[in-house]
Amino acid sequence: MTAPPVDFVLALHSHLPYVLNHGRWPHGSDWLSEATVDTYLPLLEALRALGGEVVPAPVTVGFTPVLANQLASPVFAAEMDAFFDQRLAACDEAPASLSATGESALLPLVSFWRTRLLRFRRLFQEVDRDLVAAYRALEAAGRIEIIGSAATHGFLPLLARDESIRLQLAVGISEHRRLFGRAPAGCWLPECAYRPRGAWHPWPTAPRVGLRRGIDEHLADAGFRFFFVDAHLAGAGRPLGIYGDPGGDPTLHGPLAMDVVGSAQRSPYQAYRVAQGRGGPLSAFVRDPRASMQVWSRFQGYPGDEWYLEFHKMRWPGGLKLWRVSGADVDLGEKQAYDPAAAAARARTHAEHFAGMVESIAAAESANRGAVVVAPFDTELFGHWWFEGPDFLAAVYRELARRRVAVRPATGSRHLDDHPSRNALRLPAGSWGANGDFSMWLGPQTAWTWERLWPLEERFWDAAPAALMNPAAREVLAQAARELLLAQSSDWQFIISTGAAADYATRRFQEHCSAAEELVAALIAGGESELTAARARAGDLARRDDLFPDILPALSVALGGSRSYVLG
Prior knowledge:
7-stranded beta/alpha barrel, 2 domains, single chain, immunoglobulin/albumin-binding domain-like
């Protein structure tokens, strides 16, 4: 008998911090516009083309609520118009300049960029400048699955208050329902960061809070079915025969009999049950290290191929990229002209190799009931960092459809529908960041951010219950919550740790903390004059940081006023 196919789940995590109304270049709205032209529009074009070819491409794609809010904003649509105009103006200016500098050989690439920009501007207009609606339509047609995330990509394991974790998830779910029309089944944990139930003291200056609930318990409470973890968490996980929640709500985390996972069975090629919620089990998908390495690795991965577009060299003014990688050790000044046709051919070749690799993994795992190969990536890798990435993804799905053996592309939910997780695992703490731990977000360079956030959390949640009951304070409370969430974005610590734009990240973090602290101080004071002034200030901030319009019901959930995360 022929073995049943092994599922292949491609998961794409789309996220950028809130940049609208915070300048344009280099880290303002142009950051978002560039990601849209490089990634979100090309991916949309590729998925629509595959649908027209009747090639299954059931991508599991996530949009963080903070990104989705920006993509749905009229401000973003106007910024996109300006961005297209700027890039097309660069194409108009480039021929004379290139001819004057003796670089006429690059002129065909200017035409390449003009044609591409005009094509994506037409696509943007065709979808009424509404990318959220365009992706929602693909999901409604049953071609993709859209999953959710925490509101602003907050690093959940390091937040000091459970209310903060609940708020990140409650806002995430309510915004997903508002923008995509349904509650998400899957959750992308920011930075794939996970922490189990246990004692919590991540840093010497952290508050003493004792035993904390695990991130899995919060996800189960929120009604999620699955999330993603890195392979080293599954490898280090402890087997569970009966999973319970000591001291918890027995109706929510009651005993659940499952097969024991032995140490030799902690394979990345299966989904594991990690908790039990009211709506059913919560499962963790594990990143496949082989498939991930082939795309991510600086030395072994596809994006470093000599024929692909060079990300780091661009022409100023205008930002046009006209050169190819040329080789691993080639200096920027020695890069050679980009060849779109050669790059497209390499993308097809690499797609064939990747499909073959997935097929070989599937063949090796075919005897394991419910085996799955999971390849999760940042969406922005495909197109923004690796220009040919969307073409590569489309070619992978075409190749898998052509082979028609061994591998079945599937969404996360489809896999769990057909193959409910049999084995249970208690996962350790970790992330998909450097060192596999939390050190990219909490270390000597970034501890000061948490030493400011943790007391702010305490003051906010101490003030929130009374403010929520006071109609005169609710507007101030709502904006204070938005600023707190924006300050909690994991992007700020990550950027500071990498050193790429530490000044920018520091400034943005401090802006949001200062705004939240100012509003919380007014809530604590509680006088009529303080609240009147705070409402005016909240209104000014709301025009700058304009997102999460339905945040007050989510605050009620976070405070325990409702047991339901599904708001509507």
